[in-house]
Amino acid sequence: MLLGARIKELRKRVGLSQDLLAEKVGIESKYLSRIEVGKRQPSLDLLERIADSLQVEMKELFDFAHHNNESTSLKGIEIALAGASNEEMRLVFKLIKAVRL
Predict the structure, then answer these.
(1) Other C-beta atoms within 10 Å of 85: how many?
(2) H helices, E strands: number in the chain
(3) 41: left (phi > 0), else alpha (psi -120 to 50), else beta?
(4) Residue 101 has pLDDT above 70, yes or no
(5) CA-based Rg of the chain, rounded to a whole angstrom?
(6) Is residue 69 pLDDT above 70, yes or no?
(7) What does the domain layout of the chain look like in residue ranges?
(8) What are phi and psi of 40, to 5 degrees?
(9) CATH 1.10.760.10 at 2-99, yes or no
(10) Which end of the chain has fewer surrounding CB within 10 Å, N or C?
């Protein structure tokens, strides 16, 4: 949910509507809406396109420093990953590697 909220925050910061950002990255606006509310997890490729369209580095999509709550703690991460599939875990690992660059 934090990722989606961060995408929404950055989208609004640059003055893009959901429709316009969705068009720029090549997805339906309904799908972007689901990402922003945490109902869908975007692929690494889609995250790169979103970051490019928002004119930020991908690591900025994961800058949750201003969200000082349990969701950003290790316990929050553990809870968020509970029940994740192997494929989802591989995606998380790729995202962590990308953010740490």
Answers:
(1) 8
(2) 6, 0
(3) beta
(4) no
(5) 13
(6) no
(7) 2-99
(8) -135, 150
(9) no
(10) C
